[in-house]
């Protein structure tokens, strides 16, 4: 499916929140939505399908959407199979809901990052909030590594679709060699975005303090509707899994797009 968004749904309000956001995106992309519910064994499939179909019909009746929404039940594990199913169905995006850091920890624990980075398909993690009327500002943190730039194209696609501005955030470097390296990264981003006519702005932040807190404060200041980031295991960020999870479950409830730069081989979304 060339233009498919998958929504893992646990038959709760947070699943509906993810569906609302997927619906918002699908309307702008002319995409279809597959709502995925995973059961632990086949004997539960029929009852789960009935409940999922009822949930979708209730949503469609309430929201009056014209987006095509299909239910699917699979036997497996939410910890291991969502990414594989997304690749099998050739989805462009997975929109998944979370109740925030407590909900993420309760649901996934140490599996949180593994779930959303188990696939080349980007994940958009949303909390229990309504989608925006429009995406105007996207915040994209990068660092010294080339892997961090893998988020640039997915962020550009969203920006071009919604007429949004991309804010690239990087930290200043005191070391001359590292300072030159970050300048090279920034020049690559500028060139790419100029060639694609993406409205963008570079922001170099002071190196002191928590980068996560600076990203969050900047996103709040700009009323950003989306944070987008690349994940990779050999990051220069200390304790990067914690950094990534903090962004995914930020207390400003800003949706976060995350791609696994090690697996991303083509442009999604």
Concise synopsis of the structure shown:
The protein is an alpha/beta fold.
What does this protein structure show overall?
The chain has helices spanning 13-29, 45-63, 82-88, 101-108, 112-116, 152-162, 176-195, 211-221, 240-248, and strands spanning 4-8, 32-39, 69-75, 93-97, 123-126, 137-141, 165-171, 200-205, 226-231, 256-260. It is built from nine helices and ten strands. Residues 103-110 and 235-239 have low confidence and may be disordered. The protein has 269 residues and is an alpha/beta fold. Strands 3-2-1-4-5-10-9-6-7-8 form a ten-stranded mixed beta sheet, with helices on both faces. Strand 7 (165-171), helix 7 and strand 8 form a beta-alpha-beta unit.
Biggest sheet architecture: 10 strands, mixed
Q: Give the neighbour order of strands across the main sheet.
A: 3-2-1-4-5-10-9-6-7-8
Number of strands: 10
Low-confidence stretches: 103-110, 235-239
Rg from alpha-carbon coordinates: 18 Å
Number of helices: 9
Q: What average pLDDT do the residues reach?
A: 87
Structural class: alpha/beta
Strand content: 15-25%
* Shape, per Cα inertia axes: elongated
Helix fraction by DSSP (H/I, runs of at least 4): 25-40%
The end-to-end span amounts to 12 Å
Return the string of H and E elements.
EHEHEHEHHEEHEHEHEHE
């Amino acid at each position: 499916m060339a233009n498919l968004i998958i929504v893992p749904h646990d038959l709760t309000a947070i699943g509906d929140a993810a569906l609302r956001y997927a619906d918002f995106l699908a309307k702008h992309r002319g995409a279809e939505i597959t709502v995925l519910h995973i059961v632990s064994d086949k004997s539960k499939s029929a009852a789960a399908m009935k409940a999922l179909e009822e949930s979708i019909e209730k949503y469609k009746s309430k929201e009056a959407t014209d987006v095509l929404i299909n239910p699917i039940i699979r036997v497996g594990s939410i910890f291991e199979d969502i990414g594989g199913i997304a690749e099998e169905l050739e989805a462009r995006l997975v929109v998944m809901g979370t109740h925030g850091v407590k909900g993420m920890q309760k649901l996934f624990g140490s599996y949180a990052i593994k779930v959303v980075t188990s696939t080349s398909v980007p994940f958009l993690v949303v909390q229990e909030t309504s989608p925006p009327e429009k995406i105007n500002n996207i915040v994209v943190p990068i660092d010294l590594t080339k892997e961090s730039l893998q988020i640039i194209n997915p962020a550009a696609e969203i920006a071009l679709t919604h007429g949004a501005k991309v804010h690239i955030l990087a930290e200043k470097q005191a070391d001359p060699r590292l300072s030159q390296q970050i300048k090279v990264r920034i020049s690559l981003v500028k060139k790419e975005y100029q060639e694609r006519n993406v409205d963008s702005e570079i922001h170099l932040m002071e190196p002191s303090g928590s980068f996560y807190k600076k990203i969050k404060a900047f996103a709040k200041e700009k009323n950003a509707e989306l944070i987008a980031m690349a994940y990779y295991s050999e990051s220069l960020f200390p304790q990067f899994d914690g950094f990534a999870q903090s962004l995914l479950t930020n207390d400003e409830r800003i949706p976060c797009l995350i791609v696994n730069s090690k697996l991303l081989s083509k442009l999604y979304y």
